[in-house]
Amino acid sequence: TKTSSAQAPRIRIPSSAQWDKIVIPATNRWSWLKRALRVCDSILGPPTAMAPNGTVAATTTSAPSSPSPTTWVRESNLLWYHRWVIRVLRAGPIPAHVAFIMDGNRRYAKKANIAKAEGHSAGFEKLSETLQWCLEVGISEVTVYAFSIENFKRTQDEVDGLMDLAREKFQRLLAERDKLHERGICIRIIGNWDLLADDIQRSIAEAVLLTKHNRKATLNVAFAYTSRDEMTHSIRTVAQGISDGRLEPGDVNEELLTRCLYTKYSAEPDLLVRTSGEVRLSDFLLWQSTSTVMYFTETLWPEFTIWHLFGAVFYYQRYRWRMQDIRRSLDSFTIDAACSDDATEGACVERKERIGRFLEHIEQEEEKQLRRLVRGMTIK
């Protein structure tokens, strides 16, 4: 344990019993957060610096490493001062859904003088660690940008390495099914599965089916994904519904297209975090992010720590009200998919029932495709 009396006064550390009795006030949480960081500073040195604009500087104190580096589902390894900061943050609103653009694996590999494949492996280890932090903070849904369709344009060696890594990690996911059920974690893989090898399709289909009824937390993995492809998929689905006579042209509006996206089972992300210093979305969740708080940090993804997550959540708490105003404004202009420009109540009810049957049909077809994949049949 390291102390730094020159940087911070000595602070008495509460016992475990006293810690559980601490009540964090809903007001003046910033003072409480600064106090928590002062305690960490007195023990370990300054863990991080949070600038007024919400960015997080490089940290001198990384989060504790996990004893099980190949698992998707980690055990809690937070220390008391991490939990203190979490209690401070929980005095305010916690984002229910956080999306991550996990950027910087290749730059990390170059910086660490290791192979690109090792950089991507380090990125996965950071993902599994971050998922556990999110559960600790109280974030119930996470969406990660694991592999863009644009990544297929990289060198064949790198693409093959990424696909091999995906095979290994999805097989590991299946091996941890008991842990997933125990924690109630639902896995969804969003993207264009047609672009993936048959064995990868089979693994992810099995993972989706095995966890579809879990409700405590959700992990959405965007794999072979871009927003442009997702929107194209939604439009084609609706067009096929019209062609089959299940929909009428007048049924089509924004809400119906939203309910045909890959992400149709998820709410819009409250917070989007991108690492590596890039300030763009790279064709990720463009349709869903109109009222999302965006947080950008220069930290490379494998170097992301729990302190960066704390900074992102606090940034969300400071600026969420702006996005809420935008969301309320958009909601006020949303046209009911069942009743827009209908002349009679009967026509309104008929349209609503027709759309409901169509959405139920595509959900049933998707489940049939998943079961065919598990039996070894492709969807191509």
UniProtKB/TrEMBL annotation:
Function: With NUS1, forms the dehydrodolichyl diphosphate synthase (DDS) complex, an essential component of the dolichol monophosphate (Dol-P) biosynthetic machinery. Adds multiple copies of isopentenyl pyrophosphate (IPP) to farnesyl pyrophosphate (FPP) to produce dehydrodolichyl diphosphate (Dedol-PP), a precursor of dolichol which is utilized as a sugar carrier in protein glycosylation in the endoplasmic reticulum (ER).
EC number(s) given by UniProt: 2.5.1.-
Reactions accelerated catalytically: n isopentenyl diphosphate + (2E,6E)-farnesyl diphosphate = a di-trans,poly-cis-polyprenyl diphosphate + n diphosphate
Protein family: Belongs to the UPP synthase family.
Molecular function as annotated in GO: ditrans,polycis-polyprenyl diphosphate synthase [(2E,6E)-farnesyl diphosphate specific] activity
Biological processes, Gene Ontology terms: polyprenol biosynthetic process
Keywords: Endoplasmic reticulum, Magnesium, Membrane, Transferase
Pfam families attached to this UniProt entry: Prenyltransf
Cellular component GO terms, alphabetical: dehydrodolichyl diphosphate synthase complex; endoplasmic reticulum membrane
Top-tier EC class: transferase
Record-linked InterPro entries: UPP_synth-like, UPP_synth-like_CS, UPP_synth-like_sf
Subunit organization: Forms an active dehydrodolichyl diphosphate synthase complex with NUS1.
Location relative to the cell: Endoplasmic reticulum membrane
Cofactor list: Mg(2+)
Keyword flag Protein biosynthesis: no
UniProt xrefs under Gene3D superfamilies: Decaprenyl diphosphate synthase-like
Pathway: Protein modification; protein glycosylation
Keyword Nucleotide-binding included in the entry's annotation: no
Membrane topology qualifier: Peripheral membrane protein
Record SUPFAM superfamilies: Undecaprenyl diphosphate synthase (SSF64005)
Primary location group: endoplasmic reticulum
Protein name as it appears in the record: Alkyl transferase
